[in-house]
Design goal:
Largest sheet: 5 strands, mixed, barrel
Number of strands: 5
Distance between the termini: 30 Å
Number of helices: 9
CATH topology of the largest domain: Multidrug efflux transporter AcrB transmembrane fold
Oligomer: single chain
Order of helices and strands: HEEEEEHHHHHHHH
Number of domains: 2
Strand order of the largest sheet: 1-2-3-5-4
Helix content: 55-70%
Radius of gyration: 27 Å
Length: 377
């Protein structure tokens, strides 16, 4: 009991320090994004007054109805040579809000200024300054990870930041060294993602090493099957129109996307299977190899379907607006799906193959690690 009390007393100052650092960082970052106008080259104006000057109905050639609203905005310029001056802006938005915005007092906008005249400055809105909302969302995400995951949540944030930096470096290198294979570079990146993510979150532990090996082997196997299938079918039915302006070969970009896109789900399955098997062994060191593998297989079966569905939903969800557009214009079902979902469904199928292969590979790799642990014991 005394040792537990000592541990709590020892950990409390650290927890207070972490909370204090996070609180100061949160307040400081929010104050920064509210007062960082001087850092922007583009003119920023804050809306102070809004007037609705016109309202009309519109119907397009397909019978779709919408309402248009015209606004007059008075805004105060927050940076540049006209800082503090009032500018008059106009804005038109639709009730549907498909590609425009309704502005209100307090909104900060990027504007283009017209020539100054007798009535003062006038201009047009080019975009919305969103860094305040983005910063708040980022902090909510960070706090959620820390509250739920605590230490592991912190390492998850760190690994996420490192992986994001790696992705940026990868994209820059792929442009600078276009002569190198895009798929090979993406494969190296996938190895980096796997090692960094699993080591940061789960630490240097045999279950982590088993998950890394299972992830890489399953991803490699899924890629070989996908590549062989595309080669045997000559890529028939795959539409690369969305990659028409990519300076790389669209097939290479597509395969690289499969490698990186399916990696997260494969890693999740791998660490779930390996962690569960190690937990079972640690609870019952006398369990036999066959019984351990059978237990891991049951766990793998439980998560296999849900993870495959997640991949499908993630890939297909991005195409929903385009699908609605095609169906609204009475396009045929087969044509619509083949043009818009051929790549997404292929990615989902390749990722699903990776998930399924992860389970047997993870079972036998983990069983080998557990056997080594038995021999050393």
């Amino acid at each position: 009991m005394g040792s537990i009390t000592h541990t709590i007393r020892k950990a409390r100052p650290l927890s207070v320090a972490v909370v204090l650092i996070l609180t100061v960082s949160f307040i400081g970052s929010m104050l920064f994004v509210h007062h960082n106008h001087v850092l922007y080259d583009r003119t920023i104006a804050e809306v102070t007054d809004v007037r609705l000057v016109d309202e009309s109905e519109t119907v397009d050639q397909y019978g779709n109805e919408d309402r248009l609203f015209d606004q007059e905005l008075d805004a105060v310029i927050r940076n540049g040579e006209h800082e503090g001056s009032v500018v008059r802006l106009t804005n038109q938005y639709a009730e549907s809000g498909a590609s425009d915005y309704r502005f209100g007092a307090g909104d900060e906008l990027f504007v283009n200024l017209d020539a100054e005249h007798e009535d003062g400055l006038s201009g047009s809105v080019t975009n919305v300054k969103r860094d305040q909302e983005l910063m708040l969302a980022a902090w909510l995400f960070l706090f959620s990870l820390l509250v739920v995951g605590r230490r592991q949540g912190l390492f998850s944030v760190i690994s996420l930041g490192v992986n994001a930096a790696l992705l940026v470096v990868f994209l820059q290198l792929s442009i600078a060294y276009a002569q190198f294979s895009f798929v090979a570079m993406a494969s190296v990146l996938a190895i980096g993602f796997t090692v960094i993510s699993l080591l940061f979150v789960n630490g240097f532990h045999p279950k982590t090493y088993a998950a890394i090996i299972a992830t890489l082997l399953a991803t490699l196997s899924a890629m070989l099957i996908t590549f062989l299938t595309i080669w045997l079918t000559s890529g028939s039915g795959l539409h690369y129109e969305s990659m028409a302006f990519v300076t790389r070969a669209p097939q290479a970009v597509f395969l690289a996307g499969i490698i990186i896109g399916s990696l997260g789900a494969v890693m999740d399955v791998a660490i779930t299977v390996t962690s569960s098997m190690f937990a079972i062994y640690e609870k019952n060191p006398a369990i036999g190899r066959k019984a351990l593998i059978a237990s891991g297989l049951e766990i793998g079966k439980d998560i296999m379907g849900t993870m495959t569905n997640i991949l499908l939903f993630v890939y297909v969800s991005g195409s929903i607006p385009v699908l609605i557009l095609y169906f609204s214009n009475e396009a045929l079902l087969g044509y619509t799906l083949s043009v818009n979902l051929s790549l997404e469904l292929t990615r989902a199928l390749a990722g699903g193959i990776g998930i399924v292969l992860t389970i047997p590979i993870g079972l036998f790799v983990t069983a080998r690690f557990v056997d080594r642990k038995r021999w050393r014991a």
